[in-house]
C-alpha cells in the first residue's frame, strides 16, 4: 500500500471515529438496554460480534444491560427431554416439567455463554466484565400467570406469565461495579412463592428499561426493521411516533407485535428512545448508537423528532 493510500485509509477511519462524538456525548454515562435474540443468538460469528459490541459500549463509557430469551435452545432441550413444544396464540405452553427445563437452559446455558463471550474482552484476563442475573432468583421480575382466550375459550398456558413488578437493585449493583448485567427472562410468580414463570424476553427488556429509566432500548430482530405494509420492502419505517405505532400495532405480523409493544411501552414509560435493529448485521448496535445512519426502526415520543 502506498503512502497516499495509507493516508486516505487513515482519514476514512478518523472520519468514522469522529462521527461517533455527538453520540458519545449524548450516551456517555447512560444506561442502554439491549434485548438479545433472533439469529444473532444462534450464529457463532454474530454472537462474537454482539459480545464485542457490548464490551465496546462499556469501554466507551456507556452502561449496557443485556436481556435475553432462548427460544431455539429451549425447543432443542425440550425435544431432548421428550417434552412436546406446543404454541397457543404465539405463546409456548409451559408445563411444570417444562419450566424446569426452560429455567435451566436460560440460566445455565444461554446466560452463561453470553457472559463468557463478553468476558473474553475483559481488560484484565480472568476478570468478569459481565455478570449473570436471573429474573426469578433475585426477584428482579415478579409476575402472574398469563391467560389468553382463543376462539372464545380460555386457554391455560401453564407457567407462562406477564411481568407485574421490577426490582432493579441487583442490576444497578452490577452496573455500579462497572460490569455488564446479563439478565434471563424468567420471573418469580408473585401468587406462588418459589415458582418460576416463562416471560416474553421483549417484554422483560422493555419493563427493565423503564425501571432503569434507560437512555435507550434496542431490540434485536431478524428483519431490517418495521414495515408499514409487509411484505412491501419499500415500506420500511425509519422512525415512528407513539401515536402512529398505536394505530399500526393491530395490523402487524404476530412475531413483530411483542417487539413493537415493548418499544412502545418503553418510550411511554420514560425511556429516551427505543429501536428494533436487524441482528443479522454484524455490529448493528454500534451503527445504531454511534452513527447518523442508525440500523433499524426507532419509536419516538409524539412531542419530538429524534436525531439518532
Keywords, separated by commas or semicolons:
308 residues; alpha/beta; eight-stranded mixed beta sheet; 10 helices; Carbamate kinase; single chain; four-stranded mixed barrel
Q: What general outline do the C-alpha atoms trace?
A: globular
Question: What's the total helix number?
Answer: 10
Mean pLDDT: 89
Total number of beta strands: 16
Helix percentage: 25-40%
Could you say how many structural domains there are in total? 1
CATH class: Alpha Beta
Residue share in β-strands: 25-35%
Physical arrangement of strands within the biggest beta sheet: 5-8-2-1-11-15-16-14
User: Cα-atom Rg, whole angstroms?
Assistant: 20 Å
Tell me the name of the CATH homologous superfamily.
Acetylglutamate kinase-like
CATH architecture heading: 3-Layer(aba) Sandwich
Low-confidence stretches: none
How is this structure best described in words?
It is a single chain. The strands form four sheets. An eight-stranded mixed sheet has the order 5-8-2-1-11-15-16-14, sandwiched between helices. It has a four-stranded mixed barrel with strand order 6-7-10-9. It has one domain: Carbamate kinase (3-Layer(aba) Sandwich). Helix 3 (44-59) packs across helix 5 (96-119), helix 4 (71-80) crosses helix 5 (96-119) and helix 7 runs parallel beside helix 9 (257-268). It starts with a helix and ends in an 8-residue tail after the last strand. The protein is 39% helix and 26% strand. It has 308 residues and is an alpha/beta fold. The chain contains ten helices and 16 strands. A hairpin with a 2-residue loop joins strand 6 (141-150) and strand 7.
Amino acid at each position: 500500500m502506498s503512502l497516499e493510500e495509507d493516508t486516505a485509509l487513515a482519514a476514512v477511519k478518523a472520519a468514522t471515529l469522529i462521527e461517533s462524538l455527538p453520540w458519545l456525548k449524548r450516551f456517555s454515562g447512560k444506561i442502554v438496554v439491549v434485548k438479545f435474540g433472533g439469529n444473532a443468538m444462534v450464529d457463532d460469528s454474530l454472537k462474537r460480534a454482539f459480545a464485542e459490541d457490548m464490551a465496546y459500549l462499556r469501554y466507551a463509557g456507556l452502561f449496557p444491560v443485556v436481556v435475553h430469551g432462548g427460544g431455539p435452545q429451549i425447543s432443542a432441550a425440550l425435544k431432548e427431554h421428550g417434552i412436546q413444544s406446543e404454541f397457543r396464540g404465539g405463546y409456548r405452553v409451559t408445563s411444570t416439567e417444562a419450566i424446569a427445563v426452560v429455567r435451566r437452559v436460560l440460566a445455565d446455558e444461554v446466560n452463561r455463554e453470553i457472559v463468557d463471550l463478553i468476558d473474553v474482552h475483559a481488560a484484565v484476563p480472568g476478570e468478569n466484565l459481565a455478570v449473570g442475573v436471573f429474573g426469578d432468583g433475585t426477584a428482579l421480575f415478579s409476575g402472574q400467570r398469563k391467560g389468553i382466550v382463543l376462539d372464545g375459550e380460555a386457554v391455560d398456558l401453564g407457567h407462562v406469565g406477564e411481568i407485574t413488578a421490577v426490582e432493579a437493585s441487583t442490576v444497578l449493583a452490577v452496573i455500579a461495579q462497572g460490569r455488564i448485567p446479563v439478565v434471563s427472562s424468567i420471573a418469580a410468580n408473585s401468587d406462588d412463592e418459589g415458582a418460576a414463570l416463562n416471560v416474553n424476553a421483549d417484554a422483560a427488556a422493555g419493563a427493565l428499561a423503564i425501571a432503569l429509566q434507560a437512555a435507550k432500548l434496542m431490540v434485536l430482530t431478524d428483519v431490517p426493521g418495521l414495515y408499514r405494509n409487509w411484505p412491501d420492502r419499500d415500506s420500511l419505517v425509519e422512525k415512528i411516533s407513539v401515536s402512529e405505532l398505536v394505530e399500526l400495532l393491530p395490523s402487524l405480523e404476530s412475531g413483530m407485535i411483542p417487539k413493537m409493544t415493548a418499544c412502545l411501552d418503553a418510550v411511554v414509560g420514560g425511556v429516551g428512545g427505543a429501536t428494533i435493529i436487524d441482528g443479522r448485521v454484524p455490529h448493528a448496535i454500534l451503527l445504531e448508537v454511534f452513527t447518523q445512519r442508525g440500523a433499524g426502526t426507532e419509536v419516538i415520543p409524539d412531542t419530538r423528532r429524534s436525531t439518532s
